Amino acid sequence: MITPEQLNAIGEFAAGQTLSESTVADLRSQFPDLHFTYCMDDDVSSARPVYEHALFNLYLIDGRDHCLAFTQDPEIATGVVVAELEEE
Question: CB-based burial of residue 80 (10 Å sphere; 0-12 exposed, 13-18 middle, 19+ buried)?
């Protein structure tokens, strides 16, 4: 489960960073019970973000069945994808 407060804290932290793998490493240390992945937003084609920012989107991941899948349900979410938007 990911609470709205956690999602906002993740978004606020990411907004203050230059996004990279080290950003998700820092998030992993702050939220050790959650799984984090970093990618480019255009790598995500089958999901809607749950948090949008000018520089990135956040997507929820469900990993309960040992196979990762996107979800919109924070009650079953086990992780977050930090997806960087390309500058235009």
Answer: buried
| pLDDT for residue 57 is more than 80 | yes
**Closest among 78, 83, 38 to 60, alpha carbons compared:** 78
Domain boundaries in the chain? 4-84
pLDDT tens-place string over residues 14-46: 999 999 999 999 999 999 999 999 999 999 988
Across 15-54, b (16+ Cβ under 10 Å) vs e yields eeeebeeebbeebeeebeebbbebeebeeeeebebbbeee
